[in-house]
Amino acid sequence: MKKTLIRPTSLVPNSSTPLVSPIIQSNVYVTKDPSTLDQIYNGKIPGYTYARERHPNSDILAKRINLLEKSKYGFITSSGMSAIAAVLFGICKSGDHVIGGDQLYGRTLRLLKEDLPRFDLKTTLVDTTCYKNVIEAITKKTKLIIIELISNPTLRISDVVNISKVCRKNNILLVVDNTFTTPLTIKPLDLGADVVIHSITKLLAGHSDVTLGYFATNHTKIFNPIYDYSVTTGLTPSPFECWLAERGMNTFIIRFQKCQDNAEKLALWLQNRPEVKNVIYPKLKNHPDKINFKKLFKENGCNMVSFELKGNRSSADKFAKNADLISFAPTLGDVGTTLSHPASSSHRSLGKAQREKMGITEGFFRVSVGLERFEDLKNEFKKGFKNL
Ligand SMILES: Cc1ncc(COP(=O)(O)O)c(C=O)c1O
Fold first, then answer.
1. Atom of ligand 1 nearest to the CA of 179
2. Are residue 167 and residue 143 in the same domain, yes or no?
3. Domain identity same for 361 and 378
4. Span 76-93, pLDDT tens digits
5. Tens digits of per-residue pLDDT, 242-299?
């Protein structure tokens, strides 16, 4: 810390370094003179200037995720949604056409359907479980395709390998939101994607105490305009949130492995319960996208399980109330298991008919499986199923 008239004390000099990243909360950085500042801005010497542009805690976190995603240039933003907005608005210009998966996260869908068109950007939503639907939607103006690898909450799997080939052939950028799958299971840039996005809020940070996002690419030509858009519009994060997320990431690998083990056990167990009509989990034999699953997942699964209770809203209400040690909360990726009910939350704005076409009935729940002992989790579900 710089000693000045108003701050007359500085850090005590010492010859050791902290084991844990310090939180550097300063929003501005002091340099010696204008020539040094020039060198920093020109990238000739390392250094920081103003925290909206980047700061040490966001850089440490970005590097951490870059290692997992094997990406060259990554940047942290204030939320998953701000990363998605920065990528779309940083890359596209008026008149461009964007293709998106028709089962993207609700706010991403809203951005594509409501916000991009206000800036004269045309959008088409398609089922991305088969690349042929993407081919049909391409126009001369198609600039970018944005997909998720597992859809929420129906857990359908995108045909990303073939979609990536289509993008190459047609000179279209492929953007993949890897929030659900995580880089432990899939590294989209290795599969030919141009940009990878995360809501760090979820599994990467893992403790439901930060809201952050990330985008990364291997090309400066793609990175620079998205970075500039983020800085101009102030989508950058706070140092403290980055620090919390970095701390959460220390246990990400072990958390994810345990959560996906629990999820597989839960899916298999739910399949045999008389109260349950249908279970969706990528590793189950009856999953509709087996071919895409085999290509992408190898021995992995994911921590999300969806299931449909027999009965209607009153059974759903009773189940959520009975299983009161499982949080009923519209999020995912926490250390603890959370339950969400898409018909009353994420998909409430769709009409009943449209929801039911997607298989989202009043008995449909999405479970983000956590780190509990499986026996405890099973017993809580049993408690939930009592007297339905
Ligand atoms: C797949 C996916 N992408 C992006 C987001 C948005 O992330 P955030 O809530 O950090 O803005 C979410 C949020 O649930 C999500 O599930």
1. 1
2. yes
3. yes
4. 999 999 999 999 999 999
5. 999 999 999 999 999 999 999 999 999 999 999 999 999 999 999 999 999 998 988 8
Ligand 1 site, residue 333, Cβ cutoff 6 A: no
Question: Of 302, 309, 286, 296, nearest to 364 (Cα)?
Answer: 309
226 and 295 share one domain:
no
Same domain, 156 and 58: yes
Cis peptide leading into residue 288 (ω within 30°): no
* Radius of gyration (C-alpha) of the chain in whole angstroms: 23
Mutate to test the pocket of ligand 1, among 76, 79, 103, 105 (most ligand atoms within 8 A of CB): 105
Task: Judge whether 139 and 299 are in contact, CB under 8 Å.
Answer: no
Residue 206's closest CA among 336, 69, 76, 68? 336
Using pLDDT thresholds of 50, 70 and 90, give the confidence band for residue 134. Answer: very high
Which DSSP helix (H) or strand (E) runs through 279?
A: strand 276-280
Q: Is residue 24 part of a domain?
A: no
User: What pLDDT is attached to residue 11?
Assistant: 87
Q: Is 199 in the pocket of ligand 1 (CB under 6 A)?
A: yes
- Answer whether 118's CB lies under 8 Å from 166's CB: no
Q: Is residue 8 part of a domain?
A: no
